[in-house]
Amino acid sequence: MLTIHFLGTGTSQGIPVIGSDHPVCLSSNPKDKRLRVSVLIQWEDTNLVIDCGPDFRQQMLRANCSHLDGILFTHEHADHTAGLDDIRPYFFRQGDIPVYGTHKVLDNLSRRFDYIFLNEDKYPGAPSVEQNQIHPDNPFTFKGKSIIPVEVYHNKIPVLGFRIDDFCYLTDVKTISDTEEQKLRDLDVLVISALRIEPHPNHLNLDEALAIINKLQPKRAYLTHISSLMGFHDEVSKKLPSNIFLAYDTLTVTSN
Q: What mean pLDDT do residues 235-242 have?
């Protein structure tokens, strides 16, 4: 069994957005306050994170996560990667932190965080990572679990989702090919992004996400990567089918 902790469920600016007077940004409901999108997946004594954005430190403190076994990167955008330096406490206790990403993502990170990826003449306080290059067509094994990459597109940018057992996490989705959809059959839990009500050129809106969920027929689905333009959490939740939920920060679910 997997336990999935939603560390953050917001879009790239988070909610509330700095300086915004949008009603959702002014909401006092904790479920309307969203850090940048990420999940912590646990099984046995394993802690695996998907993405580490700019809120990573705050999220790991809130989750009381004292050790980190690895990070899967979906893509290179800052809201999914900008917290990489905050692996330092884990590195100081554990040594090199395993990270997994495509060649494109690892190359991008090695340029932006060159002091982490250097092999020689490192600054003494800099963390180090163990790089693991992955490919959309090649499942890999992590701590006894087979992980199946699922390639989706964020407009023209390739993004990897990840299936572990009967759970799959997909973020920053706009399109999924029929071939990749075959990897998403017979799911217990599907997490998929849904940015807002109105259409968007780079992201699924609510209707598009619901159409994909209806096609794939997971037992349960959770929507993430949500902007203030989705509306108030409680109001939107009342309109969803009984097996589809708006995720929120600190939500924990399990999957077979």
A: 97
Q: What is the pLDDT of residues 197-226, one digit of tens each?
A: 999 999 999 999 999 999 999 999 999 999
Q: Hey, which bits of the chain come out as E strands?
A: 2-8, 38-43, 46-50, 70-72, 97-101, 129-133, 140-142, 145-154, 157-164, 167-170, 189-193, 220-224, 244-246, 252-255
DSSP code of residue 256: -
Percentage of the chain beyond pLDDT 70 is 100
CB neighbour class for 132 (10 Å; exposed up to 12, middle 13-18, buried from 19): middle
Find the helix or strand (DSSP H, E) in which 237 lies: helix 233-238
The closest alpha carbon to 225, from 202, 254, 256, belongs to 202
Q: Does domain 2-255 have CATH number 3.90.180.10?
A: no
Measuring CA to CA, how many Å separate 221 from each of 147, 192, 245? 19, 7, 6
Note the pTM of the prediction, 2 decimals.
Answer: 0.97
Domains of the chain: which residue ranges?
Answer: 2-255
